[in-house]
Amino acid sequence: MIRLMLVDDHAVLRDGLKSILDMEDDIEVVGEAVSGEEALLEVPKCKPNMILMDINLPVKSGVEVTGILKQEYPNMKILILTMHSHEEYFMSAIREGADGYLLKDAPYGQVIEAIRSVAKGESVIHPSMTKKLLSFHQQTKPEESALTEREKEVLLCLLEGLSNKEIASKLFISDKTVKIHVSKIIKKLNVKSRSQVVIYAVQNKLVPIPPGS
């Protein structure tokens, strides 16, 4: 069961999400918070295993709260749901440990599927953010990578925002093999999540950027 906490200062959005999520058998909304500080106080009480987090929050931002919670509860999944499409917000959230990043223009169905994907250990990135990532270039010398050719193929698929199942289908390998490759990539790059893999790979140009992206 996904024990979800909603953190957003907009009551209408929270109520709308809760109404939709309450109809899902595998998702239980166990708590709500309207500020970053309240979220930090409520987490120990309602014990969620996932948080749907806004960035614009009173007192402490969603990015700041994400960093604090990931230090205290490293296994907790945090999915950012925000109106901000700027690269700096996205990268800050991922660096603090966010497991996914969606924009508020995403339909409810996509949000629900994103919650399930993140719960399974996959990362979810809004398509428009993926495109921006692919066009991002950091003005530093790329680091050498110890990734194998197959791992680079999997990494490129992660950059395209593909799920494990989609990667398996594209590369003609099993879901289990994809998981093994992703785990090795995370370990080799010394990052904490699939989302951080994407940031690291783009910044250091570990894979070729597809033309026209």
UniProtKB/TrEMBL annotation:
<dbReference type="Pfam" id="PF00196">
    <property type="entry name" value="GerE"/>
</dbReference>
<dbReference type="InterPro" id="IPR016032">
    <property type="entry name" value="Sig_transdc_resp-reg_C-effctor"/>
</dbReference>
<feature type="modified residue" description="4-aspartylphosphate">
    <location>
        <position position="54"/>
    </location>
</feature>
<keyword id="KW-0238">DNA-binding</keyword>
<dbReference type="InterPro" id="IPR011006">
    <property type="entry name" value="CheY-like_superfamily"/>
</dbReference>
<dbReference type="Pfam" id="PF00072">
    <property type="entry name" value="Response_reg"/>
</dbReference>
<keyword id="KW-0805">Transcription regulation</keyword>
<keyword id="KW-0804">Transcription</keyword>
<feature type="domain" description="Response regulatory">
    <location>
        <begin position="3"/>
        <end position="119"/>
    </location>
</feature>
<dbReference type="InterPro" id="IPR000792">
    <property type="entry name" value="Tscrpt_reg_LuxR_C"/>
</dbReference>
<protein>
    <submittedName>
        <fullName>DNA-binding NarL/FixJ family response regulator</fullName>
    </submittedName>
</protein>
<dbReference type="InterPro" id="IPR001789">
    <property type="entry name" value="Sig_transdc_resp-reg_receiver"/>
</dbReference>
<keyword id="KW-0597">Phosphoprotein</keyword>
<dbReference type="InterPro" id="IPR058245">
    <property type="entry name" value="NreC/VraR/RcsB-like_REC"/>
</dbReference>
<feature type="domain" description="HTH luxR-type">
    <location>
        <begin position="140"/>
        <end position="205"/>
    </location>
</feature>
<dbReference type="GO" id="GO:0003677">
    <property type="term" value="F:DNA binding"/>
</dbReference>
<dbReference type="InterPro" id="IPR039420">
    <property type="entry name" value="WalR-like"/>
</dbReference>
